UniProtKB/TrEMBL annotation:
It comes from Mytilus galloprovincialis (Mediterranean mussel). It comes from the Eukaryota. Keywords: ANK repeat, Repeat. This is Ankyrin repeat protein. ANK repeats lie at residues 14-46, 47-79, 80-112. InterPro entries: Ankyrin_rpt (IPR002110), Ankyrin_rpt-contain_sf (IPR036770). SUPFAM superfamilies: Ankyrin repeat (SSF48403). Gene3D superfamilies: Ankyrin repeat-containing domain. The keyword Repeat applies. It holds the Pfam family Ank_2.
Length: 137
C-alpha cells in the first residue's frame, strides 16, 4: 500500500501512526519501510508518546536503536515529564537504558516528584534483590 502513495503519517483518533504501532510491537521490517517512506519519528500520540518512547517502554531494543540512528530525541519526555531513560529504567529494560546513556540521555532527569532514573533503578533492584549494571546486565 505504501507504494501506492498511502500516507505513512496518517493517524487514528488516539493519534497513533503506523510507526507507533510497529515500534510498540517491535517490528523492525515495518519500521524500516515506514522510515524510508517519510514516517515521522517525532509525532506524539494523545498520551505524549513518540514511536521512540513506545519502543523504550515496550523493551524493543532493536527499534530503539533504529530510531536513535534516525535522529530520535533521546531526552524527549512522554508529556508528563518522564523521559525515555526514566521509562527504560522503571520498566527494567537494561539494554535500552545503556543505549540511551551511550547516546547522550540526561542521567539526572527526573519525574515530577524528583525521582531520577537512578532512584528507580536502585529501588526496583532492591525490591527484587537483583542488580543492574550499565553494561546491559
Amino acid at each position: 500500500m505504501i507504494h501506492h502513495e498511502a500516507d505513512a503519517n496518517r493517524y487514528e483518533d488516539n493519534r497513533w501512526t503506523p510507526l507507533h504501532i510497529a515500534s510498540a510491537n517491535g517490528n523492525s521490517d515495518i519500521v524500516n519501510i515506514l522510515l524510508r517512506n517519510s514516517a515521522s519519528i517525532d509525532h506524539c500520540n494523545t498520551n505524549g508518546f513518540t514511536p521512540f518512547l513506545l519502543a523504550c517502554s515496550y523493551g524493543n531494543t532493536n527499534i530503539a536503536d533504529i530510531l536513535i540512528k534516525e535522529g530520535a530525541v533521546v531526552n524527549k519526555d512522554d508529556g508528563t515529564g518522564n523521559p525515555a531513560l526514566y521509562l527504560a529504567c522503571n520498566l527494567r529494560h537494561n539494554e535500552i537504558a545503556l543505549a540511551l546513556v551511550e547516546n547522550g540521555a540526561e542521567v539526572n532527569s527526573h519525574d515530577k516528584k524528583g525521582r531520577t532514573s537512578l532512584y528507580y533503578t536502585v529501588l526496583l533492584r532492591m525490591e527484587n534483590r537483583t542488580y543492574f549494571n550499565f553494561d546491559g546486565t
